[in-house]
Amino acid sequence: MGLLYATPTVIFVAVFFIAPLGLVANMSASHWTLLGGNKGFNLPDNYGTIADSSLFWPAVVFTFEYTILATVLLIGMGLGLALLIQSGGKWKGFLRTAFLLPSAMGLASASLLFYGLYSNQIGPMNPILQAMHLTSSPIQFLEEPLSALWWTTFLIVWRFAGFYMLILLVGLQTIPRDLYESASIDGANRWTTFRFITIPLLRRSLALSLILCITGSMLAFDQFYILTQGGPDNSTVTIVELIYHYAFQSQNLGTAAALSVVLLGILLIVNAIQFLRLRGAEDFR
Amino acid sequence: MATMSPRRFLPSALKSTPYYVLSGALAIVFLFPLAWAAFASVSGTPGSTQVTGFGPGNYQTLFAWNNGLPTYFFNTVILSCATVVFTLAVSLLGGYAFAKFDFPFRNTIFMATLAILMVPVATMLIPLFVLLKFLGIQDSILGLALVMAMFQLPFATFMIRVSMEAVPKELEEAAQVDGAGTFQVFRRILLPNVRPGIVTVALFAFLAAWNDFITPLILIGTSSKEPLALAMTTMREQSIGVIDYGSLEAGVVVMALPCLILFFALQGQYVRGFMSGAIKG
How many domains are contained in chain A? Predict the structure, then answer.
């Protein structure tokens, strides 16, 4: 009887998940073009094409750079915001809503919003920065590789910081109050309390934030596709953008599938490491 | 402490000043872009209908652009609703099966459903593109909704299963004594009792479909079938030269407004969903 109710799930999982998984493996081992379809087995040519491509290693390096930058800033910001809310000031409710509001928006619409915000045509950023005497000449936000990376990451921090704040806030609330009280009786200062009580007891929430942030950043696409289109000079091409490029610009689905398999492999390794670490911590539910 | 001397009062006021400065600055940083987008969408910009001053010109341009805003808006609504319907239909029945029955391969099927979380959408789109073509539903909103529902299944099935497991057995047993079959138990006892779970699943499926960009980018090829997120990006790309930023921000407002309204209407469900979604690590 139960199997009957589970039948739609089985069909969905089999048709739209298991079948494409098999297909991507098959495609990655075949000469498969966008218009011509399957032209036969060619393993390991597709993987060779990727490794030989001048775009591959820069994309991998850039994706890792972005992942590290975004993860450090997002977790740091999320923790800072969570502590600010937890300190229980008068504006607590208002601030929580304000920080969370960007998370309600889609990433594509947020990227389009910032595309206007960063433009020199109508963007308010340069006039504001100039009025505050923070810059003398207009900043070209997305025209230079390093600045494109930073300002795209700024958009991401704006969009996602509230989400990580929420995860860490839940973690903070599980820390027993009396731990802080006994620490202050023992004369511990704020830094010592933070270092030896807050951080260790927040470990599980931090680990969770870390894995979500790392895997999410490794898959970065919308923000770079919309803000920089991989430019300037292909300096902000991520791995997922490269998959898109192989499939629809080079019209080579086989190579795109091979790169998908490579990315999937990297993510499975990242997930496995985190999973084992959480299991080791014995508090994985 | 009964008599508060000015000397004591002053430091405490000074002490809270950094809190207000910091909080105020952060609130401005987080709220400013949203306020600016709303402002820019009604401001005059070169290259659009609304050249100077304030008015609805940018929205009028957007309304008439290409297939027209109503088409893209309608596509997005249909896509999001279809995704919600597929997700709920499959996950409610599946969640019921996993929560209340024992059957062969029960754990295997459940784990396979959860395994979808390990495989991100971006790595699956190339084979899905080929598969949907084979099934004859590529470049269609139906195919798009089916794919999006599949990616909602792990969260949805988990959520519904946990909610249904929390419903007391006595309620079902009472219904069974009254002669109710398994489907009647499902419909009359379980469904009303897992309503918060249903709302959370529906909300997240709706928002995911509403905001998804890469899935339609790859699976949709016809302009008249594009959802908003894709159409707005196409609009930006097509106007090389003078970009109509005003209409672009008007599009951002049209896309973001339903999300923000849902956020305020269902903040509790939101937080709950974020938290359950966070379990997916």
Answer: 2
Low-confidence ranges of chain B (pLDDT < 70): 1-15, 46-51, 238-242, 273-281
> Would the pTM count as exceeding 0.95?
no
Would the pLDDT of A284 be above 70? no
Of A109, A166, A243, the CB nearest to B255: A109
- φ/ψ of B247, rounded to 5, equals -65, -35
Do A163 and A96 have their domain in common? yes
- Dist. CA B145–CA B130, nearest whole Å: 16
Which of B147, B237, B177 is closest to A20 using CA atoms? B147
Number of structural domains found in chain B? 1
CA distance B217 to A277: 36
d(CA A67, CA A61): 10
Residues of A whose CB is below 8 A from B255: 105-106, 108-109, 112
Residues A182, A272 share a domain: no
Alpha carbon distance B137, B143 (integer Å): 5
pLDDT in tens, A55-83: 999 999 999 999 999 999 999 999 999 99
Stated as kind and residue range, the H or E segment containing B96 is helix B69-100
- Tokens 């990616």, located at residue: B151
